[in-house]
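pasting for ref
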Amino acid sequence: MRVVRYPMFAAILSAAGLFAAQLAHAASVDEALQLSQKTGRAIFAMAGSKNCGACQALEKRLVTDPSIQPLIASFIPLKIDTDGPEWQTWATRFKPTGNTIPMIFVVRADGEQLYGQSNNLPGAELPTFLTQMLQQTGAPLPETQVDALQTALLAANKALSEKQVEKAIQTIGPCLGTGSYAQAAVEIEKLARQMCEEGSAAVKEADAKFADPEQAFDGALQLAALERTYAKLPPVVEEARNAIKLRRREPANKDLLAQAKLLDQAKAFEEKQLPKRALASYQTVATRYAGKPAGELAQARIAELEQSLPPSTSRSAATPARGSASSELAAKKAASLLKMGKGLLEKRPEKAREYLAQVVELAPESAAGQEARTLLQSAR
């Protein structure tokens, strides 16, 4: 198939500053399709002949009509010679309606044919047509954004291959909703839909565990993890939060969900390879929920983390070294929190326990930390 670039189209596109260099060298339909797929810009193709008066008239108008040029600059334009031997190849792939020329085609970046028929688009029909087509072709993307999407897609797939779902979601989250049919944008949206389906199934599986008292805490842990992991995918995080909200209405589940939430926060620090913060959080869970499922799991993780950390680090995971200025500030803050917690023990015991747990986390070796630990144990 012989494909001829309209010279004026290249000039229009150069003025628009949209991949002018690539377009100037696009000598084939395949190259134009590849460029469209990459950038999200649709193809505007006119199939005609040098001997066709209507074709020449349309070309002249595209050159001289100032109302057309800004519109056509949003497309990747092509002129296809219908006298060439491979015209049927194009016509087989993108089927036209009618048998007269010029034939106008609009092909979206994802390969979807939006229009293809005999039409010289006289008068006001041409700008109206181009405007209507642009409403269906999606957003074209600048080269920098295309590169960013391609990089994000590679990083997300790598994270998924390493079972790091949260990292993959955080990577593609900011890339969603471009409104473009560029290949990278389409693949990212497809990946997001796939993860939404998997996340939704996981939420349903976790929620179903509440029907069995022996599995209820496992279900609570899964919901807490899903709420965190899918925070950048609204459909899934909303489903997880709704499930948590409904289950929290049952008194027996309220405490389980609170335990799971706090335990998952510690797990998040561990997954981010922040062992000191993870250890401090696990210590808070173990103190606040001693003798309960979360407390038992936290104690197990504490034992494993302490083995992997230097002794001095594990003892002071939540507290700076003694004698330092930061240690003194931590002790003062712990004393203040202790006072607040003690004042709430009778009227608001749950809130009091939160303050006391913060004291233990902030300064476990201080006098305030030891008193808070004793009060927590007696308040169970």
